[in-house]
Specification:
The protein is an all-beta fold. It contains 2 helices and 32 strands. The strands form 4 sheets. Strands 2-3-6-9-12-15-18-21-24-27-30 form an 11-stranded parallel β-sheet. Strands 1-29-26-23-20-17-14-11-8-5 form a 10-stranded mixed β-sheet. Strand 2, helix 1 and strand 3 form a beta-alpha-beta unit. The termini are far apart.
Amino acid sequence: MDVVHSMCYAELILLVVLNAFGGRASGLTAPSRPPSSPSSPAAQNYYVSTTGSDTGGNGSISSPWATVANASAHVSAGATVHVAAGVYNGSFTTSASGTASAYITYEADTANFSGPVNCAQVAANHGDLTTCVRLVGGSSTTWTNSGDYVQIKGFDVTGGGINGIYTQGNATVITENHVHDILPSTCNSTGGSGINLNGTNAQVTDNYVHNIGPYPTACGYVQGIYYLTSGGFAYNNISFNNSGFGIQLWHQPSNIALVNNTIFNNASGGIVLGTDNTGFTVDYITVSNNIIINNGGPAISEQGRPGCIGTHNITTNNLVEGSATQLISLVSGSLAEHTMDVSPQFVNDTGDASGNYHLQPASPAIGAGTSISVPPTDFDGNARPQNGAFDLGAYQYMR
């Protein structure tokens, strides 16, 4: 089920406010450092444009196709599909698979294919969204991917269907996308999400996700970012104003690192991990270096059926503040270490898409991070660390 029901037995409510931040918690192990972005050994470039044709085009820059779905039917491992800026209406599916050494990449470009567009950054910086590739779904998921080793990069994704981006392929990379206004008036047990990871080893990085579900109404069925199975990373994401949780791990999640995300103003809570699945243990989850504030439920919580939470989860070096209920809710035996309950001091904390969530010079989040599973860059592409310091949240402070 998509909604979180009851807490695990023997729950321990932790309201942790510690003054000293430190490095890696003693005795804990974590997933390895996130890998670099996938690349292909030999470029195979294809093109899609609003002025193209699926019947008369051949996928070249001078004769592009009209849809991403048609491109998927013609490409193979190692291909990059460049999609020109413009509005593309209708839900669609991609099924072609790459390989571990030769991904298929779908990349948002300018209208004349002069270069890539990072629509997550465009949205976060209040830029001109008409420079983006805008995908507007219908009554079903906007983009459904079933291919393995696929990268989805730089798009503006919206629609009234169940999910913005849904993947069931292995090792999907979903990066630099602006995903917003999905299911704006619906809350039911069918559920939904901005980004839905129903495939193993998913990497969800540098996305700007907001207004998923009928926000500001709370709906535990509809999440910002939603992991359903094992493996992967979520880092440098900004997830806010969603009816459910900013990030939810449910059903069969394990071996996942949630690191350096900025999560705020979600109606049901910040980060939740758990399961109702009989016989499954939610384990080897790392939650570190996140800023999680002003949510309608706990900043970080472990929930689900009795005995569902394992003993190898790491919760450390997070800034939590302003939750409507308890700040951190973990089961007995779990610890939240090096946690701070203070304002992160954003540059302009409006609580919505008009804000600026970079850190002010005096922010307590600066230098407060750990190196556990830390991403090599931040949301803006700046290197981590800066002057030896790892900061909290999606943005590294540039000294």
